[in-house]
Amino acid sequence: MWNTYLNGRVNIPGPIPWPIVGNLPMLLRTKNPNKLFLELRMKPLWLRSFVKLFKGQTSLVFSNGQEWVAGRKFTAAALKDFGVGTKSIEERIHEETRYLIDFFSKSQNSSIDASKLFPKVASNVVSNIIFGERFDHEDPEFIRLLENVQFIIEQNSPFRPDNFFPILEVFRTTNQLQAAVERFNETKECIRRRIDKQRLTFDPCVIRNFLDLYLAQEGKQDSKISESYLFNTIVDMYFAGTDTTSGALQWCMLYMLKFPDVQLKCRAEILEAIGDSRLPKLSDREDLSYVNATLHEIQRIATTAPMAVPHTTLEDIYIEGKLIPKKSILLCDLMSVHLDPIVWNEPDIFRPERFLDDKGHFLRSENFCPFSLGNNNLKIIWYLLEPWSIVNFIIIAKIVPIHHACHVLKVNPHMFFTFLNKGPRQCVGKHLGEAELFLIFTSLLQRFDLIKANPDQTLSTEGKQTFVTLEPQPYEMKFVIRN
Ligand code: HEM
């Protein structure tokens, strides 16, 4: 402990933490941890850590090494075969979009709570890919499934004080902990029931959806992936694919309410390129530069998953001469890249045009990374947790170029990032998430004027942190059929 303390102080710059509680008091004083981290971006400091969540589980998110490689290959291939980049994903998203259009057309003047609606939309697209069918939004089983996902996510937020300071867990009501475990088991049970139902009509020669792939794998001796691993990966996809996409869609709507001029420009482009007699397709993306730029700008300024997920160092590393010990848990702050004034001009200003060239064509940026770091030479803030001390500390290390860190590690940049062990990490649902944002956003703008439910309401762009995502504060809006 002393060694950790001393080594850390010698090697890594930062303010002195309080004994035992580290920088927890500072964190407790803030309502918005992400904002605090941003304010401290150039000032390294020590903070307390959060407990290792979901310890002992094995699935795509919670596996490493060869097991992870096999699981990743399987999941990525499955997502590809069943849609990502192909027509069928488009059809599955269209199915959900048609439901939305129908629903909004019938409930024209009703106020819609975006925080209640979009989790259903995102979750239904994942359901469609996994089970081959969507749920009715009013289906009690579906509502319960979503409530459970939400509850578990809230209970496990890394920003809960007891996650920063595990000893506080003794003060957490056992009821809450017990409820989280029970709801997690209930979610698994719901998925288990679906698997059993699909088993009755399963034909190994006709693979219909992700579950069929799972069933085809079941019981195979030579399979590199165990049944329980695949089962847990389905659970992962549910959790990882619902909150993130729903959060991003909520941000999209919020920015359209806040910036009606941008909404008008997006709609004008959609109507000019596509008209209003058919739904937008993924292939329309290249004709919709301004829309594309707007979606990128929203994802940049809002950063739905601001700190991605934790990763672990494989060995002792030195970043700019500072020791980051083996098995340290690192969080990379994606938001620090998206709001870095060195790479973005006036990063706090919402301006879709920054993603357009002089001719109005869409312009990519290597500093755009909502789905985690790629191969780019990004500068990023690192948060470091030291896993062996009684009370863990996080250090916001200096901003360092990612390639620098990878060079020190002598590994491929992708291989650098790990979740509690080793393995490259990037969002496996990136293309699916992008497709959902594009198709749902454009389809809604094509048909409806998006307006605030209450014209006097001030919409805040301050986010609300959940497990890994940053969502807008709840707001209400109306979808009015366009004249
Ligand atoms: C706008 C939507 C989305 C955003 C912003 C997002 C963002 C992220 C981020 C930042 C990570 C962490 C990467 C890292 O380890 O550093 C991640 C991982 C992951 N995402 Fe997404 N995601 C989105 C949509 C989806 C969807 C639709 C799915 C569903 C299939 C999904 C499934 C996953 C999974 C399974 C992982 C873990 C991958 C692994 O550990 O290999 N995501 N996502």
Automatic annotation (TrEMBL):
It is found in: Endoplasmic reticulum membrane; Microsome membrane. It is a peripheral membrane protein. The keyword Methyltransferase does not apply. GO terms for cellular component: endoplasmic reticulum membrane. One of its GO terms (molecular function) is oxidoreductase activity, acting on paired donors, with incorporation or reduction of molecular oxygen. Its cofactor is heme. Heme binds at C427. Its main location: endoplasmic reticulum. Keywords: Endoplasmic reticulum, Heme, Iron, Membrane, Metal-binding, Microsome, Monooxygenase, Oxidoreductase. Pfam families: p450 (PF00067). InterPro entries: Cyt_P450 (IPR001128), Cyt_P450_E_grp-I (IPR002401), Cyt_P450_sf (IPR036396), Cytochrome_P450_fam2 (IPR050182). It comes from the Eukaryota. Belongs to the cytochrome P450 family. This is Cytochrome P450.
